[in-house]
Queue: 4 jobs
Job 1
Amino acid sequence: MKGFITIEGCDGVGKTYQTTCLREYCKKNGYDNVVFTREPGGSDIAEQIRKIILDAKNEKMSDLCEAFLYSASRIQHLQDIVIPALNAGKTVFCDRYVHSSYVYQGLGRGLGLDKIVALNQLAVGEYMPEYTVFLDLSPEQAFSRKGGADKTDRMENADLQFHQRVYQGYKYLIEQDPSKFIVIDASGSCEQTHQRLIDALKEKGIL
Ligand code: TYD
């Protein structure tokens, strides 16, 4: 879908920080026609679903339940935020989207990529991103830079092998369809990554 850009990466890569910097950059440089949002959550009902998903107390949640909750949050967020913005001709930057489900639930949890692709196809229909930015940093590098995982976050709390499957999953998806991805080396300083991201978005005509 034209103007729909999603941003992906493993936990701890600095995705939230980079998205905030990108938002600041857009503000400073007069890009008014942009909307920044995030998943899971991003709208009222979707945020309520987010709380259930990420609550460390919900350790008994089944993997399939988790997959459906992410999809449920996605449907609501699409309807409330993404579709109206795209219809108004805005560029939407969404922090995480279907690719997170493919790799976290499909490959990380091991539910199977095909199953999760099918579930999400049902949830989002034609609303697939024009491009997906991938902030490329391995989980080992990400967690060592950050000083460990956030123990209050049920997903971040998963073991390192889980996060390695997620990382390999992203790499696999990029290999399958390279023209849909904008891969950004996120191993340098925050400023370097920010500059790489801006340059890449300009090159694609998104900014
Ligand atoms: P969040 O605190 O937003 O992390 P981040 O800043 O890294 O995006 O938590 C989102 C968590 O949910 C993150 O661990 C990835 C996970 N997730 C999935 O497992 N499947 C999904 O479909 C989505 C959108 C996120």
Job 2
Amino acid sequence: MPRFIHVAAAQMGPVAKAETRTQVVRRLIELMREAKSRGAELVVFPEMALTTFFPRWLIEDQTELDAYYECEMPSHETAPLFEESRRLGIGFYLGYAELVREGGTKRRFNTSILVDRNGVIVGKYRKVHLPGHADPQPGREHQHLEKRYFESGDTGFPVWRCFGGVLGMCLCNDRRWPETYRVMGLQAVEMVLLGYNTPFTHTGHADIDGLTSFHNHLSMQAGAYQNATWVVGAAKCGVEEGSSMLGQSVIVAPSGEIAAMALTLGDEVITARADLAMGQRYRETIFDFARHREPGSYRLIIDRKGAVPPPEKDETVFE
Ligand code: CDT
């Protein structure tokens, strides 16, 4: 039996440093209205959708830095988005920088939430795979200081039973890691929601950076197919404060096929009528984990951080 959900990815063009939360929320509401008018029940916004991508700068002033984070959700400024969600009866995924005060310490996470059609938060995810570096790197036009401004998420990769299916979340760099999808795949996820901010010069190696678009889709299409799940990826893109960022937001089916893709580098809504039951055929055949996975064979190295070095002697040479 098919189980359809009409889902949208709301790609965003650049968010300027000077743009206020109120201005950004107004943009998000416009995108949400368009998604709803095209039949969507759920709309996915990008990672760090409420601000410019501030990890591109070294910010040493604490007050200036703290201003990029949300201390509460919803806040006075973001409440209109939740109200519109409730009024229209459409759920959403939203990425933002989160600041938590625990006793005398501040904890910072790169976070996303899942909000139901009543404007109620049903899930929170904190980004696990933080790219970039903790200290500024000389010679870079734009820094990527996520490792300085966030700690690795403490949520793991949970899934939620909502919107008539099983949904999970991740954020940007997470999409490149097979473990992200597999941990959710093992919980029978049917749709993974994710937002991203991907500068075209993220590695500094022209040959790798030249494949940014290819690697973006490769990661999401492989993750979808190998785990029999839909993947909805929403970019923040275009030239943001001098940094050129990838668009090509997509909705990927469990077959690995692209069901919808953004064509611009600006605010743009794409939609798909997604059958949440579509992955079942894959889960009962080629990716029947219970029948075909061999976790015992993976266990020896799976928990290691870093690669296991190859044997010192080449033991594959036959004499
Ligand atoms: N935001 C984010 O995670 N971006 C990374 C690129 C930066 S790597 C220095 C990504 O994987 O798209």
Job 3
Amino acid sequence: MTAAGKGLEGVVASQTSLSFIDGQEGILAYRGYDIHDLAPNASFLESVFLLWNDRLPTREELASFEAELAGLRAVEPGTLEGLSGIPRDTVPMAALRTGLSLEGIFDPDAEDNSPEANLRKAKRLVARTPTIIAAAHRLRQGHDPLDPDPSLSIAADFVRMANGEPGTDEAAAALDRTLLLYLDHGFNASTFACRVIAATLGDMHSAVTGGVGALKGSLHGGANAKAMETILEIGEPENLGPWLEKAFAEKRKVMGFGHRVYKTKDPRAKHLKAMSEQLTKQAGLETLFEISSELENQMVGQKGINANVDFYCATVYYALGVPIDLYTPLFGMGRMGGWTAHVMEQHADNRLIRPRAEYVGKNDLPWIAIDDR
Ligand code: ACO
């Protein structure tokens, strides 16, 4: 028995009808709708509705869905208590992981995997992920968490809860679009982790908590924060050449570049690049965009490696004033819509996910009694 390629490259593990990716042509679609149509026209929650219901909502359905989720934003008091007890320097992704796990303890449907209970939990999870991230952020800065304001959109309320004051409509719209672009992406590492957990008939909170753990790593969601650190480290356009030469010589991965599935441009990057150009200009941070686009040119020109979703998202968030260690939690806020959809899809037609391993260790060793070792 021989193993599949390292990292399961090219392995089609199962089926999904949530998102379609063509890595050769650079196509991404949610439930059949191209990301290039969704990104400029739909909202994050409209796309979540699409993913969960397999159809676009009417205006009335969308308004009622938004209102329902807005009413679910307040997290359990026990979750806030738990978050206030973790060390002040806990990294935000670890705080999110803990917050979601706590929500699972208090959830009235915690152990119920029925489709109805799963949908109720999915709504609470999408609605409350921003609240958890904002609460942990406030606590870390020595402030009390703020209650949600259901009159605001999910993105605008996140900005208010995290910063203590409302942001502009434009900032909320930009944030919302990044959430839409992060929503779902086939069997990416964190989603696959969720599906493995769901396939044991594990509950939704356990699954998405595992998803956060997988997203946290820098080869996956952690890359958006690392990409920003890279751009800041380069600092000035004239530093780019020597910086890249050194990175290549040291065989360092340039964060925000490369993708397991896309062998061409990541279609999400197109939208984020346009947003980055506009927002950095408005914020007087053109240099960061200049460095970014030149880094992209060099990576494509010298290595044939394209920017992925995380690269231009970094400068979008920077221009919006988001603290760097909240970039990956924001990715999780968007992906929560996808993770929960995958748990529902897995539970609806389940079989345990349990691959084999090719054993490459020693064999047939003679037993040695403990006193003889
Ligand atoms: N910088 C420099 N070289 C790279 C990069 C990069 N970002 N990505 C790939 N390469 C090179 C590798 O060094 C390797 O070269 P080699 O064959 O000469 O050794 C080749 O391209 C193939 O790279 P792998 O790491 O084997 O590709 P894999 O499919 O396993 O990894 C991954 C994909 C993890 C995304 C990788 O491109 C990477 O580490 N990128 C940086 C981290 C990042 O941006 N992650 C976010 C991905 S998108 C997301 O998760 C939402």
Job 4
Amino acid sequence: MYRKNVFNGMMIALLAALGVMACSGEQPADTTETTQTDPVFTIGMSQCNLGEPWRVQMNDDIATAAAAHPNIRVIFRDAQNQTTVQQNHVREFISQGVDVLLVSPLEAAPLTGPVAEAYEQGIPVIVIDRQVVGDQYTMFIGPDNTRIGEAAGRWVAERLEGAGKVVELMGLMTSTPGQDRHTGFRNGIEGSEIEVIFEADMRWLQPNAQSEMESALTRFPEIDLVYAHNDPGAYGAYLAARAAGREQDIIFVGIDGLPHEGMVYVEQGILDVSFEYPTGGAEAIEYALKILEGEEVPKELTLPSRFYTRENLAAGGEWLE
Ligand code: FRU
């Protein structure tokens, strides 16, 4: 793989040099310098959308990590929350012959085929944050969403002293973090008298969370806590509660914990807690380089997570057990 890429890189450099000379009408005097140029590897990054700050952060993390390595260049594609667009992006990367494919899939099942096609054609594929079905990829990098959901459930059970009425605003349930944050949470509250009185799929989106919460507020005069699968969802729910004059009666719990989003909400007392969800962007570049250098990589890299409350924020949060 590495040798093929070195060769490709040399060919690209050589052709580029010849192209420049062809345009300027110069003769190839000496190609030694050109052929000694380091190979340039192309990494295709298929992002499912850039609507949430968290995804912008992931792309930034990838770009920053890649900037430290002049021998790689990253091509970014944004599917804008449309599965068919993302399927096309992956297939474009395959026909372009990228050296490594990074993909953060919108939905698990529909992206499984295109990811497997890349993998079968010998393109190393790193899946980030949301899973596909099966194991037709090189490596998965991401935090453990079941664990985060479970920790959130235990935190909620403790905060509500074992009983209370909860609204669960779920992430897109055709994506694995939505499924796992839900299952984990239900395990975490098991054995308590916490009742989930309302649940809805807000598809990770703040405006959807806000309108779902408006319905919940209309139907239920008593709501103790909202567990939202991400911070934009928790904030949307907070806005709905504030509009109804009920934000002081409700505790809001979110996930992502970005320094400029969830952590700020915690600091401002809008959220009681936010669970960190590291993007994996820097690790994706780190492992892409290992693959390009011919190193063996693990099938899965699980990233650690912590949670932030007003009490532990200054100390950098608390790591999940
Ligand atoms: C952004 C996002 C995050 C969430 C992650 C789950 O699109 O919704 O807020 O933690 O995706 O994949």
